[in-house]
Design brief:
The protein is of the alpha/beta class and 249 residues long. Helix content is 33%, strand content 22%. The longest helix is centred in the last third of the chain and has 14 residues, at 235-248.
Length: 249
């Protein structure tokens, strides 16, 4: 097993001072850098109109991320649609539900939320089966979302309001790390678009989630650190476990 001293996490730096990454860095004397491999770009109104989705005709909104919240209200403002107070919001998590306070008076709205997995929302939406749902999304959407909506006969329309694009990582061309950490297939796509001649060799790749693992393997690369697992549910726990094992070897 390779010794780990430097790690690049393909996400923005943590905003909290008590991030487990900082604890990991201090405990094992590591150098952990953060760099967002992907970025979000809003879709122009003209492109949204080409999708022929009548936003005002919907009575409920399905929100799977803060980006979805931001771009839904951005487009509504740009098309001069005043979102009615009666609009219902179905959020995949409580954090997303509370984020709505940026745009609406939370206590006066009909807001429902699950515990993270999209499947949590299905029973809630089935209780409101007569609503016409709008799903604001990126150009990249997890298959489980449309599949679940279709299987449960939820009346919905999808509107692509923002795109996920690769960041410019050219400044990293001559920088090497022992571990590269990924959380989505988009991160792997960005790596290969920025460095089409990337050769893994001794570099360790850590991946979160089965779709990320699959993207790494389909790119002909090796997944060295996999999470989540029952014993290692977080990325920092999985990295620490690898480090502990490497120190024994």
């Amino acid at each position: 097993m390779n010794k780990v001293k430097t790690i690049l996490v393909s996400q923005p730096p943590p905003t909290a001072d008590n991030s487990p990454y900082f604890d990991l860095e201090k405990k094992y004397k590591l150098k952990i850098d953060f760099r967002q491999f992907i970025q979000i770009e809003g879709v122009e109104v003209a492109e949204v109109r080409k999708q022929k989705v009548n936003i005002p005709a919907h009575t409920a909104i399905i929100l799977t991320s803060r980006n979805a919240v931001d771009h839904f209200f951005r487009i509504c403002e740009e098309i001069r649609f005043n979102v009615p107070n009666e609009m219902k919001y179905f959020c995949t998590s409580e954090a997303i539900a509370y984020y709505l306070q940026k745009y609406v008076v939370y206590r006066k709205r009909k807001i429902y939320f699950g515990n993270g997995p999209f499947s949590d929302l299905i029973p809630l939406m089935k209780k409101h089966k007569d609503e016409k749902y709008l799903l604001p999304s990126s150009d990249i959407l997890k298959p489980i979302i449309p599949n679940s909506l279709k299987e449960n006969k939820i009346n919905y329309s999808r509107a692509i309001l923002y795109n996920t694009v690769s960041s410019d990582l050219s400044d990293l061309a001559n920088v090497s790390y022992d571990v590269l950490v990924f959380f989505s297939p988009s991160g792997i796509k960005s790596l290969l678009e920025n460095f089409p001649d990337f050769v893994q060799n001794e570099t360790l790749l850590a991946g979160f989630g089965s779709t990320t693992h699959k993207a790494i393997e389909e790119a002909g690369l090796r997944v060295d650190i996999k999470t989540p697992t029952p014993k290692l549910p977080s990325m920092t726990m999985a990295i620490e476990d690898y480090i502990k094992q490497s120190l024994k070897s």
